[in-house]
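Quick one: structure tokens for this chain, please?
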Amino acid sequence: GGGTAFAEYVKAWSRRGYVAITVDHYGQLPDTSVRRPDRPVLPVSWAGMAPRPFLTEASENGDPEMRCLWIRNAVALLAHCHTYLLDLPYVNSRQTGLLGISWGSVMGSILCSLDRRFAFAVFCYGCGYFSAGADMRRFRKFSGAAWDPENFIPALQTPCYWIIGTNDMAFELPCWQKSVDNAPGTQGMSIVPGIDHAHTGW
């Protein structure tokens, strides 16, 4: 939610021999010296992002139609990034993967349900089935949204691994477990005691 295209993500995977790319789901420049709402926004192609999908004058929860447009744009951006990587001559096109963290897992699970070119995916924290929880954590308010990964996960054939912490403040364990159980590609899962919901999930 407050993240961006962190350079250290790419550096960490590059050190391990991977070709990596990371994105800013908001279409903003990765200037971590300022808070996310105040970061510079990329030009014309992201004009559909305004008004912001969350805090707006109209509602403290933002504009649902804008949020849906935002997610569509972000998922499309991820697909374009994947195509770019696959076109590089030094990338093994049979061995590309996706690591999603929080919103990245929400959007990544949607993408992997549509884009069958990934060899694997790892989803940290994020999931779907927002209505399955009894708590009012951050994603519960999005129950019934057309973009809830619940509507895509049953088609998720990509081999995937799911990770969450026991006390995640954004995603509830019942929602996460339904995501794990309903994704045909699920290969494994980990519930980690004490893990924080943060940008360090990678």
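Residues 64-86 form the longest helix (23 residues).
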